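User: Structure please.
Assistant: Input sequence and predicted structure:
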Amino acid sequence: MAERVASRRKSNSGSRYMDYSLLFIVLFLLGFGLVMVYSTSSYEANLEFGDSAFYFKKQLGATLLGIVVMMVVANIPYHFWERFAVLGYAVSVVLILLIIPFGYEANGAKRWLRIAGISLQPAEVAKLGMILFLASMICSMGKQIRHRKGFYTVLAVPVPIALMIWRITSNMSSAIIVMGIAILMLFVSCPDYKRFIILGLLALAGAALIVFIIVKMAEGGTEGLDFRGARILAWLDPEAYASGKGFQTLQALYAIGSGGILGKGLGASMQKLGFLPEAQNDMIFSIICEELGLFGGIAVILMFMLLIWRFMVIANNAPDLFGALLVVGVLGHIAIQVILNIAVVTNTIPNTGISLPFISYGGTSVLFLMIEIGLVLSVAKGIHLKDL
């Protein structure tokens, strides 16, 4: 015990670490996102509200608030939040359930609550709550997580939240992200990779079976299919559903294809002029490719790759397991969301309605992403320079 205390005192003598590279990347993505939100939404905002900067102003307000909250969270020792892990899980459940009587519908989906005049998407709260709860739970379980019972106990924790997000808010993409966060945090905590290989194969087999069943059902007519089934059919053959579920996907692909290598120029997109619905939200990456070309699209992807690399550096050098798991959870959230968004825009997977982190329009998303970045910076501050 004495040796451990002496070692801790010795380590505390090193200079504390501040990841300015991470901070720069995040601020760059936020600034770039504001530029693209204005460029993408100005035409629609002028038609609907008579103010071409309507969406830009709202996003700017959320971004500035997010930066302030990020700095506050970054200066609070991250172990402070461990005591709120169970509360975070419980609040997530309550907020999702409140959607049933009090939620309001926007863009064809009932996913938001209005609290004190502010729109809140409970799925974003659930992602942060899941990161905190699982980090605390995995640390408290210790080596028990390596046993089958502990492994599947942790894996079962996010299932109720994911199911509620899916069924109550009709937000399958957020449900997938919640499960993805849990699986990634479990992956770095448990060395038995065979279980993950089996789970991955089962998930792929299940997805293939669902697609096969939907295709077979469609051969007898599409009357019995819900909107998710129609989205899968549109994914397989978007041109056959060009006037329905395949319309947005086709317009996004037209935007990407017309941008070429260097793009048409910032603000010169044609698809945003009423052809691509809600372009500032889920499909903003397609407008980036149209205006800035393949070069711009790849540059954005590279920035996200740099962001993920900084997360990995911080997680590998975190002072303890709890800090490392917080960073891994944030890494999983952002990485999965980026992959899903770009995959949807390029028609690699069916349309799931997921935003591009830091860039797409959405105040709740930006605010909670900045809280997560604050947590990562707080963990980074616990690193000592001589440990790097």
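The two ends are 25 Å apart (CA to CA).
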